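Quick one, T. Sequence first:
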Amino acid sequence: MSAVPARSAGAAAATPWLIAPVVALAAFMEVMDISIANVSLPHIAGDLSSSQDESTWVLTSYLVTNAVVMPISGWLSNTFGRKRFFLACIAGFTASSLLCGLAPNLATLILLRAIQGATGGGLQPAGQAILADSFPPEKRGMATAIYGIATVFAPTIGPTLGGWITDNYNWRWIFLINVPVGITLFFLVTALIQEKGAAVVNKAKSFSVDWFGFGFIALSLGCLQVVMDRGQQDDWFASHFITILSVIAAVAFALLIWWELRQKEPIVDLRLLRDPDFAVSFGLMLMLGFMLLGSTFLIPAYVQSLMGYRAVDAGMVLTPGGLITLVLLPLVGRSMNKVDLRILVAIGLIIGGSSLLWMTHFYLEMTFRQIMLARMVQGASLAFLFIPINAMAFRGITKDKTNNASALINLARNFGGSIGISFMSTMLTRREQFHQSRLVESLQSMNPAYPDFASQVGSVMGGGANGTLASIYQGAVQQATLLAYLDDFKILGLLFLGMLPLLLLVKAGKGGDGPVPGH
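Structure tokens:
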């Protein structure tokens, strides 16, 4: 076997260092569109004469089709050629973004967002696979750092940018800004990336589609994404709609595993999870997405609901944390060839878990600077997690499996984020109800301290007996909400620290120690 790996599909026609920022920009564009529309939903609903609840399907339709396409992107790359597939995704994403910005009504916008999600579903996996094959193992750390800047920073900047565009211009521009970027990317990819190797070999193979596998993926991941996105709004299993979709997702997922493990050329290569390094990396990446998007949901909601921040100000709380990640990613990328990957991941898990436990000490008089510092510490942990986890995942993967591995790893991060947002939202509501019921138990005349407390509130707030009761209740709700947020931060922190023992299942090694991939 040659010591220098042969280029695979989508390998570089130019220097890999020109490829890396182009691929990262494509991923940034797609990831940012997951969150950029969140803060614009009220404006979309008002402009298109629909309810707030109906407008949430603008997010759901994108996430569902994105989740369905992402795991099969490896098969699509292998079948049609990685460069061809990557270009098709860029073209489709750009065209659908243009049409989303011109949508005349909500139904059309939801349909176009579904197309946008489907075409964007292959941008992350194909892009990361291109980087993995374009760089030798000892240089993949820096390449992954460039890619990480896009995929980690995009969810942070998305809501801030979306809010600024919507407030200063029009919600349609959150989609239209993708058009010039997409057109530029299409020409850059055409010029810089060359189709070689596996793509040429695949042309000689008979074309066959694993339709059962695709159907099981569409049912399981599509239904599960709807359940997670709509579950809290519809009161989970109290809704027949959510219950039916959950059953369909569970049955389809079981059938997917059974079917794909029996196929010689599966549409999703689940056999990769038999490798302990890849399986642990998959779980860690799932938790990274869980923590990143879960906390990205909690912190802005906390400062807006309890401290009265505007949407733009809430986004600015997150931005310095993203900048810290940007600064540290290249440094961690350089250290990967000198330090055991397990140590780097352990540092990231400890810093991330500790930062979330620090957030359990938040209070209502916290300053902007204090909240920003806590998020900056959390941002530092992301740099120690994203690159080493990716390196662990790919170090035992051969060239012919890079597309499939990239699809699964990116699915783990995206789906982990969806689970994190859904879980944190649900826990926030449940814990708020719990704390409110406990606080109200003490706010009654049988409590000896209550009359004096009510008298003090009345003397300060005025408004008579009714005004006093209203003030007391408002304070109880505010305290219950605060305690619910603190509980959520604690859950996230403990879950993160609880991932440390998994590193014992991973073999020791540095970033460039993996085997030289071969066909």
